[in-house]
Design brief:
Layout lengths: L1 H20 L2 H20 L5 E8 L2 E8 L23 E9 L3 E3 L2 E3 L2 E8 L6 E6 L16 E7 L2 E15 L2 E14 L2
Antiparallel strand pairs: 1-2, 2-3, 3-6, 4-5, 6-7, 7-8, 9-10
């Protein structure tokens, strides 16, 4: 039984000695190295993490999402199926952070953080969903409709030019999603 504790105890003593023996400069260098590796990890993601902050109707607004690329693929109806909940980005769930109560497509949405999902459709309006579970590691795989706070219908438009990477921008009329030839303007006030 005693042998079981010898190795972990020896490791703990070694870690304490190393930690106490290092200078502040070494610790700072280690921290800088950790920050560089974390930022290079984020930069090396196939779908880079994007954070946009701004104001809508004078109120602070933030959106965070993974930005996938088209890469020659058929996006709508294939990579992103029609009539199925989509995390509106890549990797973890896209989320928005409202500093104050706002209206989305004329409906009230209280201040707070919400995951943002959409249901793309081959024709007609798309459903835009604000869900109370905003911190989902695996996006739509963890989506729970029971946690929906607001669902609105939004009319997409299709542009001539194609945008390679998904972009979600804070601009008129509130929030605009663009990817491939899609433009999905969500009215927020």
């Amino acid at each position: 039984m005693k042998k079981r504790y010898v190795f972990p105890f020896a490791m703990l003593i070694t870690m304490v000695m190393v930690a106490c023996g290092g200078s502040k400069e070494e610790s700072s260098e280690e921290m800088d190295s950790m920050e560089v590796s974390e930022s290079s990890e984020a930069e090396s993601r196939p779908s880079p993490l994007e954070v946009k902050e701004g104001q809508i109707a004078g109120k602070a607004f933030k959106v965070q999402y993974g930005s996938p690329a088209v890469k020659g693929r058929t996006v709508w109806g294939d990579l992103v199926p029609y009539n199925v909940v989509w995390r509106t980005g890549a990797n973890e769930a896209t989320f928005v952070d409202l500093s104050e109560d706002m209206t989305v497509e004329g409906q009230s949405l209280k201040a707070g953080k919400y995951s943002l999902f959409t249901i793309p459709k081959e024709s007609g309006t798309w459903t835009v969903i604000f869900n109370s579970e905003w911190d989902l590691e695996h996006g739509h795989f963890q989506y729970d409709e029971k946690q929906d706070v607001l669902r609105v219908e939004v009319t997409p438009s299709w542009e001539e030019s194609s945008q390679e990477r998904l972009a979600i921008d804070i601009e008129e009329p509130g929030l605009v999603i663009r990817w491939e030839k899609l433009k999905l303007p969500i009215s927020i006030q």
